[in-house]
Amino acid sequence: MSVRTVKRDLDALESSGAPVWSRPGPGGGYGLAAGASLPPVSLSPAQAVALMAAVSAAPDAPYADLAAAGIRKIVDVLDPKTRARADELAGRVWVNAAPASSRAIRSALEEAMSEQRVIRMRYTSGDGSTTIRDVEPVLFASTNGQWYLVGWCRLRDAMRWFIVSRIERASVTKTACSGHTIHEVGEPPANARPVHGRGA
Question: For the whole model, what pTM was predicted?
């Protein structure tokens, strides 16, 4: 890590209101004041409910369980008044989401994607034929109300889109992916975007 990076990170901590101290000379350095903690995340009740609604409406989305757990952590640290208002507002938002696919299958797909390992899966195509395939996961995509695993299919030696609900069994292998990238999938549709939250 460079000195420049350290200084930038210290500036960011100070700007956030964290009580940073410094001591020059041998044995010196930087640190947080004893008993100090970083300021909690501050959300409005509507922002908290928006997060709850988004996750509740898409229980089959990749990492949905982790997102729900993260939202619970955020809501737990809100000040009591904001939390109470968020709870009241959440009662006014109803969701009738489609049932999620198998948790075991989704966990395997999520792990394979995160660790970039080949996934072995039993897949039934639209014509009813079933195959066992080794797939290198490249991305998850949602379109027309369905989630897809897009990856390099070693059986077909090509990039393929697999409907997650048609994956009947999945297990993560110890084999690392060979480096296929999202650029091989092609350009996303004009109305599609990554979920990193930046931009429209």
Answer: 0.70
